[in-house]
Design brief:
two-stranded antiparallel ribbon; alpha+beta; 43% helix; three-stranded antiparallel beta sheet; 5 helices
């Protein structure tokens, strides 16, 4: 008995199911291993998620160890003051993933977390 079977039914998700669940539209499904093309930088991803200017985001990106991060306090201030409700929810979701689900540096949201929202 395998941990991914129930009776005689194989429950391992297919590549297509993972693509749907993760909303990965840029992945080439005909290849076993593929890289996303034109991957945006951390700066561009944060600009897209937050809706803020390049200057705002650049001023708040910090180098923490081997990766870039943004301080949780900056995201919290943005959540409280952002005029766009959808962006507030996006930034809040990013914060939850960065601080609770995939924490790397205490009080910071790591750049790898932004891949979930790109």
């Amino acid at each position: 008995m395998s941990c991914f079977t129930f009776g005689k039914v194989d429950l391992v998700p297919t590549v297509e199911e993972y693509l749907t669940l993760l909303r990965c539209s840029r992945i080439q499904v005909d290849r076993a291993y593929s890289k996303a093309v034109n991957v945006p930088t951390f700066l561009k991803k944060l600009m897209n998620i937050t809706g803020m200017s390049e200057q705002w985001v650049t001023a708040r990106i910090k180098q923490k160890g081997d990766s870039k991060c943004i301080l949780w306090k900056n995201l919290k201030d943005l959540i409280l003051a952002h005029p766009d409700m959808k962006k507030k929810v996006d930034v809040f979701s990013l914060s939850i993933y960065g601080l609770v689900v995939f924490p790397k540096a205490l009080g910071h949201v790591d750049e790898e977390v932004t891949d979930l929202f790109d």
